[in-house]
Amino acid sequence: MDRRTSLLGALAVGCLLCVPSGFSQEGRQSPVAAWRRRVQGMLERGRLPLIDLQATYISEASVQSNPGIVRSGGKASDVAQMLRWMDELDIALLAFAPAFASSGEPSLALHRAHPDRFIPTTSSGEFARWWNDPVAFVRQSAADLQTDDYFFMGEHEFRHYPSPEQVRAGQTARDITVDIQGSGGQALFELSARTGVAFQIHYEIEDNLLPPLEAMLQAHPKARVIWCHLGQVRYPERNSRYGPSYVRGLIERFEHLHFDLAVARAGFVYTPSGARDSTLFGDDGRIASAWKQLIEDHPQRFLAASDYRPAVEKNYPQQIGHQRQEILAVFTPATQRKLAFENAWRLITGSDWA
Ligand SMILES: [Zn+2]
């Protein structure tokens, strides 16, 4: 996002008199320079740096003020452990999107403490503030972006089945539907189109959900959408259309649509349906050739990512290992760089890595 786009955004939301309180234009360059040094340092050591854009952050303060987090099996993110993992696993940058907070401020606090590692990110739409009032949620994200302190927006659940750990805990409340064509969805897509700041969606892969998403992409061609969990099909009988050729068609029609690769291992079975939900992988456990070809043909549209969340944070090294060994390693070196960090770099800074 350049300064001009950002200011136009402020004007478009009616902020004619307000002065952005956060980074000046020069101020936005300072974190980007620190991030560049960290990425470059890893490259110089012969490593493949990874920029992880899909991660949910729960601060200690949020846990203190929301006792329900612990009651439902949640916990705060272990930031000290994450700092160690980032160095051990060559994670250059992390977009830690805050959940259970009233704004994106916990992400800014992390960034202030570790400016070379954490990308200021607006709230994660993975808790009740989003489901209960998506319009108010987007209004807060717009206010956050207006400060010019943020570079990215979190994951927003439009259709979400309980994740594996929620199934184990019997948490049926995480069966979420937010109408993507409703006023919250419209506001979110408009906010991204206006500011140039990318956001993530969680959207199950089912025949009846595809036309509404296509209509939104058509109506908001400048919105920068990352559709998380490429090829994660939890109920196969509900999908007859989505596959490599369908995704290829979307990529050809919508120039700002991206996909992330935060998926389970090949053999993982989603208990409620009994389905092996990572459809990227064939029965031999390797990425199926049609998916591999699609990613090699459009390497600028896909991003490695972890789907970190505190409840399963101990799995982070395995998730990153899976991204590197089962996914990144099968591609050409140029494609690996795009998937690992160059595409994420472009989305957060607005410029190509060069
Ligand atoms: Zn998700």
Task: Give a description of the structure.
There is one protein chain. By secondary structure, this protein is of the alpha/beta class. 43% of the residues lie in helices and 12% in strands. It has helices at 3-12, 25-44, 60-65, 68-71, 79-88, 105-113, 128-132, 134-146, 164-168, 183-195, 210-219, 244-253, 289-297, 316-327, 333-349, and strands at 50-57, 91-98, 155-160, 176-177, 199-203, 225-227, 257-260, 269-270, 275-276, 302-303. The protein has a six-stranded mixed β-sheet with strand order 4-3-5-6-7-10. A two-stranded parallel sheet has the order 1-2. Helix 8 runs parallel beside helix 10 (183-195). The chain is globular, with a radius of gyration of 19 Å. 43% of the residues are buried.
Radius of gyration: 19 Å
pLDDT < 50 stretches: 1-22
Count of DSSP-assigned helices = 15
Mean pLDDT value: 92
How does the helix and strand content classify structurally?
A: alpha/beta
CATH class bucket: Alpha Beta
